Amino acid sequence: RPAFSAKPVKAAVIFSVANPGNAAGWDEGSYRGVRKLIDEHGWDVTVAEAVPFPRLADTAANYAESGYDVVIFTSSGHIGAWNEVSPKYPKTLFAMMSVVNALPKAANALAFSIDIYGYGVMGGMAAALASKSGTIAAVGGAPVPGLITWMSGIIEGAKSARSDIEVLTAFSGDWSNVPRAREVTAMQIERGADIIVMNAGGSTRGVLDAVETAGVQCIGYATDVYAESEKSVLTSVLMNIPSWYEALALAVDEGRTEARIENYGPDTFTLADMHGKLDGAVETTLRDTIGRYQRGELTVAVVAHDVK
Amino acid sequence: MLLLDPEFLFGLLRIATPLMFVAMGVLIAERSGVLFIGVEGAMLVGAFAGFLGAGLLGSAWLGLVCGVLAGVLCGAAMALLTVSIPANQVVVGLAFNIVCAGITSFAFRLTASVAPSRTPLLEWPVAEGTTLARWLGHLPPLTVLALALSAATAWMLFRTAPGLMLRSAGHNRHAAASAGVNVGAVRSVALLAAGAFAGLGGAALTAGWIRSFSDDVTMGRGFIALAAVYFGRWYPGWTIAACVIFGIGEAMAFRAQSFGGNPHLYLMIPYLLTLAGVALAGRAQGPQEAGRTEP
Amino acid sequence: MTMGGSLPGAGEDPVRLAGICKAFGPIQALNDVSLSLRRGEIHALLGENGAGKSTLMNVLFGMLSIDAGAILVDGVDVSRGWSTRRAIAAGIGMVHQHFSLVGDYTVLQNVVLPTLRWSRPSVDWAAERRRLAALCQEYGLTPDLDARVEGLSVGERQQVEILKMLFQGSRILILDEPTSVLAPQQAEALLETLRRFRDDGYTVVIITHNLDDAMRVCDRITVLRQGCKIDTVRPSEVSVDEVAGLMVAHSGAVPVRARSAPGRDVALGIRELRVSEGGRSVVDGVSLDIRRGEVVGVAGVAGNGQSELAEALLGCRRIEAGRILIGGEEVSAAGVAERRRRGLAFVPEDRHAMAMVGGMSVAANMALQTIGEPAFSRFGVIDRAALAGNAQKHIREFGIRVHSPAMPMGALSGGNQQKVVMARELSAGPSALVVSEPSRGLDFAAGAYVRDRILESAGSGVGILLISSDLEELMLLSHRIVVMYHGRIIGELDASDYDVNRIGLMMAGIDPQRAERAERQGTPAARAVLEEQAC
Amino acid sequence: MVHASVTTEPRGHVLLSARFLLSAAVMGACLALTLAILLALAWAVGVSPWMVLTTLLDGAAGSSVAAAATAAEAVPIALTALAFYIPYRTGFFNIGAQGQLEIGALAAMFVVGAVSAPPALTLPLALLAAAAAGGLLIVPSVLLKSWRGASEVTTTIMLNLVAVEFVMAMVSGPMRDVDAFYSTTVQVPEAVRLPGGSLHAGIWLTLAIVVVAHWALKRTVFGFRLDAVGGNPLAAVVAGMPVRRVYFQAVLVGAAIGGLAGGIQVLGVLHQVAEGWSKPWGFTGILAALLGGSPGGILVASLLLAGLETGGRNMQAMTGVPAAMVYVLQGLPVLFFLALRAMPLVRFHLDRKEGL
Ligand SMILES: Nc1ncnc2c1ncn2[C@@H]1O[C@H](COP(=O)(O)OP(=O)(O)OP(=O)(O)O)[C@@H](O)[C@H]1O
Ligand SMILES: Nc1ncnc2c1ncn2[C@@H]1O[C@H](COP(=O)(O)OP(=O)(O)OP(=O)(O)O)[C@@H](O)[C@H]1O
Ligand SMILES: [Mg+2]
Ligand SMILES: [Mg+2]
Q: Under an 8 A CB cutoff, do D320 and A47 touch?
């Protein structure tokens, strides 16, 4: 277990996206968390952005060697590096702030993870119940495991809420090509989808633009993207990412840094304000259904679809 | 079939329009005898300026203007390096691209706090409901602008005195010089115009199409425009056609993804198409001076 | 008999150059050169290769800046900010040695180009065309105004260049080595035209290496040597030899040795050779036997298949039909390297384009085709000592003027470049040599030397095919002369009955019989036939 | 550069020749200018210039680890530089080194996965595959140029884009490591990696290649013919040189080296091909080729640019300045160099042709 000598805690945060503060979604959420560490907990934080995946391990090791107390990974893409590095530097605490289901063999590894499937279910339910056309689409970036689980959740969630629903799925192929994301989304809309559930990272704005131009609605990922496009954001399924960073800070302060995965379930997710975009009745049933699922009164089968 | 489907048609026009602007820029530069490899960088700078301008000034059209101005600056830099000094055109271009990639994403971060992350929608600057508005209807404004400017470029190059002088500088600088054409001046002017077009193209991509900016948002589209010019054998008409063909390719790629299969495989289509086009264009009797570096 | 700037009344001279100095890096190309040009004169600039002729005229035409001195136009000093544009505006026009036309523009476009202005974007082509047509009328020039310049013959291009000058209103016409690329009759016609310009009050300057031309048509001759002006003289007052004396520091030309008798067996055999270019056959069934030690001259107006014939013989041009034999062995199918190995040597007409790599050293250029041989490389590794030694040897025996063999070939003057090429080709110990325009653009000393080497190697048993547009040269060197017209050999003369006029007619495609008749009627008629056939 | 490409090397000792000192001075000036701008930028984003400077130098060569990293980083730059430079001598612009590198890496990865031979055999096999793949990728360009006269500048750029998408398709498709949390191939097993750890064998291999190339271009008939064909193809034909063959050889050799760069990078450093695995080494390489002007010079230039890269990364990670700064850092000195290098005075002295 790492012992923290002098305050302030010296931490490094690793992002794979460029310019996370501006990424509309998951990474922006993480970035807000980081700001909390700096502003509210007085941590001395260095942010490494746009770190290519193959370079993750080196970068993390580099921090550990140059005497950082905490190294924070922000994406499930970082798990490999997490597993590789944390055993090597027992003095440093390696925190994973993303979807994981197993710990590395090390006492100094800590994870704040979410039930990404459950998260998908909520999005699917919301979309299905809000859809008029009976067709919804999930648009994602690169086809990575976490994203596939999320989409499976959407499919099952949608079907459980509305059996006749058709769920389209599409990937733009990466996390940065905005035009590509835009056109891929436009095509889903063209195929009948009137609600888009999105998780496109850096290319989110491409999705938003397609949705806005076509005059349909979309559901934001992780953070509330209403401000990005008031016209076309129905709601966002919020996961309170900053709170995980709070928890991390607390754990460090109280020295509770033993290896564990703190899992945040559906009960921690919330549906953002809909600004009266749905008529009362629909919104009530929607919120009610989702509420029942969050309270566990309504169970949804866990099926792994191999979405393409 | 596909082409008659309006959604597809508009999709491919959205893709092709920025290319058209940029390609016109490349065409002008090369006709004057300068190989404009730096176009990718100029387009990227224009894209950022367009995004920033549109966001801060609250008008996509003003964003385009900013793009043009930024492009002109790039053109001036190019002129300084490849005409006044002059250094090797290809390598200057490549270095210029790298620098622009750095500068734009750097500036993007500096301005992230002040500029809105998405720019206003670009519409015809005419009052709603007027007959004119109804006439213009769904015509994509930028595509119309692109075609108009291309026509103007063609006319300028092949029908006017400046055009004749410009092309002579590109074909044989010694002949041009001994005919009293100030080759350096002609090329500098050409590069300013080329930069303006490249910048406009970039702005058309951000302020006119995706309404946001991200690092290296042009992703090689400047190079595609370059290829389009070779494909079009340095003739505006054919070059526009080449841009459209690329648009078709990329639009098809996007579409094909919904048939399943790996998106990246489909995304090779437009590049292969362009390659095929360049091959078909064959022994391109381009401006013989383009690429040469002599004081 | 010194004249020029110091003359009384020189003030009215349309152009005066005073104390011009110009250096290219270490090379002092012009050193305190003064010169004045008058209205209504033809003024010749003579000098060896590298004497500074082109440079001086480039200065006057505003293409080169000067280090010192003054340029006076109509008595006004215009040196400051002098440019091509200004020169043209001041009524000065120039035809460069290597023509400067925009190849893919039409004649009309090329001629109009210098008159265009940014301030007048739109062009009234109809009007320009009328003006130009009128001009052609006046001086009997007959180019097709809508033909692309690329497709034109050398003579036609030169006409376009001249029209360019007239059209932009030049009163002072400069021509750099205008005749060196023309066939005799064309040259004659050009000089005739120049005379008419003079009579119309134009000032004409020609740079030339042809002393006779200068003596015949010029009013004054200015001689440059190594960047310095030696003198300005009147032809009427001096002899050719005097002028020649002025041009060269060292004692004049090398005497050309007598032709030695050719041997028996055939060095280079050509049988029914046919080469075609874009459908039409440019070499059309040529048969020729060149015996060891024999020099066979090929006369013909440029563009009648001589260069194609040469390239076909070398093997860098596909042959349609026919056979080529070197030393009796068939090589029709062999490539360039193979033919060279069989003893073929080749000196192309355009050395800048075909015979040298300007950026590589003189030494490298001297081993261009032999670098692969054991003499210069072992297992693909170059023996640099051998390379240098070889170069030194040739530089000595060919008297090539160059600081060191390491100097880049491009920095040599044309004469010396040609010597390098000759040295390379002859040192390969060939049995057959195909040589085109060996002395084009060379001053007579260099020219005479090159010719001497040709005869010498003939003497040592090399069979030589000599292609030249210089009839004097052909008649001087060849045992017999064949005339090519439209890719065919239309006539052959033996050394015994050489006759310029007759060859000239054949070059114009008039068969010998008609030539006989024309000859009996006398030259003027003949020339008439000629002009009708020329274009 | 064009002139430089045809000059033959100076007489006497390179290190003592005046032109070497001059070019060194020019280079120094460029770096100084760049550094000044860098510090200004740092100040603009509110980072202490001193921190920036120290972290930069520290990351570039502050420790043996850093130095080794820089050396390793120089490998792909130097090799792609040769991939550009060798064809360039014949007048062929190979802008496709990046694509050749990507494909080469993929090919090496494929061999590692597919071949089940002893490491001692698999390793060289993988490197060969990389080179072959690189060479293969340029074939369309060279054929299109000689058959259809299509400009290689555009075709190689297009092939870059094709290669990148193809690699992505493979690592997110057939060659994907299903357990990984992002699109990547499996890791190269320890046994098949280039030996030597951080100073891996690829570095020495690269060194060897550079030396051989330097010697071959200056001292062999191959280099001589390259210059002739590049300087005046027509004269080369007339001299009976196998122009087309020389030209093909140069281009293929170059592209193969480009492919090898990818192979070495994946077998020696990154051990996997993944989404966003590569940096624009291929383009940096072109810059190095220009700065260097000869294989020897390329080596120096590559180390310099690599230092800026590793140092820049360290600077970014330690001070939090935007990663974009690294590109500015690499591009600017080259632009300055181009500008200065082309100034008439400098050019006159650097291009003065001496020696054989
Ligand atoms: N562009 C140049 N760069 C360097 N030196 C030059 C250049 N042009 C001319 N020179 C030098 O100036 C000298 C004079 O050249 P110039 O062309 O005037 O000779 P010339 O009299 O025209 O010779 P020629 O009869 O062969 O045409 C040459 O010996 C050459 O060394
Ligand atoms: N880069 C150069 N460096 C030095 N001298 C040069 C250079 N380029 C040309 N010259 C000189 O300029 C002069 C004019 O060049 P030009 O091409 O007219 O050769 P030339 O001597 O006239 O032979 P030719 O009549 O066959 O052209 C030549 O004397 C040549 O020596
Ligand atoms: Mg001359
Ligand atoms: Mg000459």
A: yes
